[in-house]
Write a structure and sequence with these properties.
Layout lengths: L5 H17 L6 E4 L3 H11 L4 E4 L4 H5 L9 E3 L5 E4 L7 H11 L4
Parallel strand pairs: 1-2
Antiparallel strand pairs: 3-4
Length: 106
């Protein structure tokens, strides 16, 4: 299990995975505070291709001042924060617009 509500997490990750497929020039990575073995098992069981990295010590959450989890961020390859999710519910349309401004759509 990843997160407090695996069904909710899977729904969001699948939506993000679809967005990632639309913008192949942009690397989309999910971050989990779960251990690497749990992340690998979760990805395998849910058949997710989306890259998910383990951040057990919450270094990325601290670096980007994550007010809650899950929360979406768009970060440039140089580490510059370009966008962050402002509301608790992820607005996939807004995220799609941000990704479109950064890369070519498939």
């Amino acid at each position: 299990m990843i997160g407090s509500c695996s069904a909710c997490v899977v729904t969001e990750l699948r939506a993000i995975e679809r967005l990632a497929n639309e913008f192949p020039a942009i690397e989309v990575v999910a971050v989990s505070s779960s251990p690497p073995a749990a992340v690998a098992k979760f990805r395998r069981e849910q058949r997710l291709r989306l890259r998910i990295v383990s951040d057990v010590q919450n270094r990325l959450a601290s670096a980007y001042n994550a007010a809650w989890k899950p929360r979406a961020y768009v970060v440039s390859s140089s580490g510059e924060l370009r966008w962050r999710q402002e509301r608790f519910a992820l607005d996939k349309g807004e995220l799609r617009t941000v990704l479109a401004s950064l890369g070519e759509r498939r």
